[in-house]
Amino acid sequence: MRFDPAYSGNVFIKSHENYEESEAVIYGMPMDWTVSFRPGSRFGPARIREVSIGLEEYSPYMDRHLEEVKYFDAGDIPLPFGNPGKSVDMIEAYIDGLLADGKFPLGLGGEHLVSWPVMKAMYKKYPDLAIVHFDAHTDLRDDYEGEPYSHATPIKKVCDLIGPKNVYSFGIRSGLREEFQWAKEVGMNLFKFDVLEPLKKVLPELAGRPIYLTIDIDVLDPAHAPGTGTLEAGGITSKELLASLVAIAESEVNVVGADIVEVAPVYDHSEQTPIVASKLVREILLGMVKSK
User: Fold this and answer.
1) How far apart are CA 17 and CA 33, in angstroms?
2) Is 218 annotated as a binding residue?
3) pLDDT (tens digit, 9 = 90+) per residue, 101-120?
4) Phi, psi torsion values for 38, nearest 5 degrees
5) pLDDT-based confidence at residue 2 (cuts at 50, 70, 90)
6) What is the CATH number assigned to the segment(s) 5-288?
7) 137 belongs to an annotated ligand binding site
8) Distances (CA, A) of 138 to 1, 38, 123, 135
9) Residue 194, pLDDT above cutoff 60
10) Separation between Cα atoms, residue 104 and residue 26, nearest integer Å
């Protein structure tokens, strides 16, 4: 279950050498074939791994050390350039395999469309699945200029699959008027602008349910994450995002998988965007992966 390391860049810091003994698997989805503004997120997975060398292995947020969790870095799925349909199918098949092996999948994107096949695979295993979604954008379009495979569509696709009342979106501050209206009409749980406070209010109702967490890095204000394809002013701080992960980790929800998407390193010469993404990976590993 490992791809060519030469294709994926370095492995994430402290990754375990043995797939079979690992509880979680980090894998990359280097795809940006459908973006509507600036490409470059296909380079995100490799750079998130590379900058992880600067992380402390102990998290004061979770009060745990990376030695306490066994995780395997499988490298990047070798997705076919320019072919979103085949790429989506390959991702879904790979996640099917991880879940069959009892692994916690932790994906690195790539554009946000890559989350759709992962969520689809998760739903096959967890029919009572709920989605927790951090993002600047609604991602509730049926298509983008006639194309159903778009980074503007993954949350609408999963709403259609599992029911909009099972999808919880936070930090939203951009989208079509029709998207916001649709979410309100169908009872989707869409929270504008903020993450931490509305998240704390809904976590009790999600207690015991399997949760898939998808984080679009542009939920952060551009001051905290300039390295992304579609910047939106008015976002949250990295401090609030980290506090939100702690709130999830301390709650009674059962996080069964996660991803971090839309990191585009070429637009951030300071590298603060991949650096914060690598820290988010650490907190997810330490706060949400159940040790065997």
Assistant:
1) 31
2) yes
3) 999 999 999 999 999 999 99
4) -115, 125
5) low
6) 3.40.800.10
7) yes
8) 33, 18, 21, 7
9) yes
10) 9
Q: How would you write the chain as a 3-class SS string?
A: CCCCHHHHCCCCCCCCCCCCCCCEEEEEECCCCCCCCCCCHHHHHHHHHHHHHHCCCEECCCCEEHHHCCEEEEEECCCCCCCHHHHHHHHHHHHHHHHHCCCEEEEEECCHHHHHHHHHHHHHHCCCCEEEEECCECCCCCCECCECCCCCCHHHHHHHHHCHHHEEEEEECECCHHHHHHHHHHCCEEEECCCHHHHHHHHHHHCCCEEEEEEEHHHECCCCCCCCCCCCCCCECHHHHHHHHHHHHCCCCEEEEEEEECCCHHHCCCCHHHHHHHHHHHHHHHHHCCCC
Tokens of 10: 């370095």
CA 50 to CA 137: how far, in whole Å? 28
pLDDT, residue 147, reads 77
Is 112 marked within a binding site? yes
139 belongs to an annotated ligand binding site: yes
